[in-house]
Amino acid sequence: MTSHTHSPAGPWQGRPIAGYHSHVYFDASTVEQARMLCQEAERRFGAKMGRVHEKPVGPHPDWSCQLSYRPPILADLLPWLAMNRKGLVVFTHPVTGNDLIDHRDFAIWMGAVRPLDLSRLSADEHSLDKYEF
Length: 133
Description:
The protein is an alpha+beta fold. Helices cover 27% and strands 23% of the residues.
């Protein structure tokens, strides 16, 4: 068995992960399904549920609701979302203080990969204190 003692250099090297955002995408026919999924994720795991946006917001091409949570929740929440999304697209990314890198390079998709409008994101580094979980 081969053991790796170092990882390749990349934009992630040395970046602390303050938390995660999972964006649940939906449309007019699935808005209630998405709302119930997000409410249940908040109830079961303590994820902070954001607004249910019935329009595209920021880089997101579809209507969406954001779940924000700390790293220890990921291991339980991610498989639960995978098994309970019932066809909804879920986009998850870590929060490292660089919105562009987080959305572009660290994307985790469940369902169809949707085209993000990355021109709406800054490559500037932000303090992790600006994010709420």
